[in-house]
Design brief:
This protein is mostly beta strands and about 70 residues long. Helices cover about 0% and strands about 30% of the residues. The protein starts with about 25 loop residues before the first strand and ends in a 12-residue tail after the last strand. The structure holds zinc ion (ZN).
Length: about 70
């Protein structure tokens, strides 16, 4: 059974993040890395199917340096 209704018991930090394989929204954080540019990289693993997802958290006031060229 993949359908879990009314299951908002856990507050996930990354809202709207979904497993691309099973659509599950529950992840374990297996790795957290503070990047030199201020962002936080988190490696998550889906609780259902184990699909890994890497997310980058951007702090408030962060200015992207990707567009300086
Ligand atoms: Zn999944």
């Amino acid at each position: 059974m993949e359908q879990m209704k009314g299951g908002e018991q856990e507050k996930e930090q990354a809202k709207g993040l979904e497993c691309r394989r099973c659509g599950c929204r529950h992840f374990y954080v297996t790795h957290t890395l503070q990047l030199p540019d201020g962002r936080i990289k988190r490696r998550r693993v889906c609780r259902h199917c184990g699909t890994p997802i890497v997310t980058f958290e951007v702090p408030l006031g962060y200015v992207s340096e990707n567009a300086r060229k």
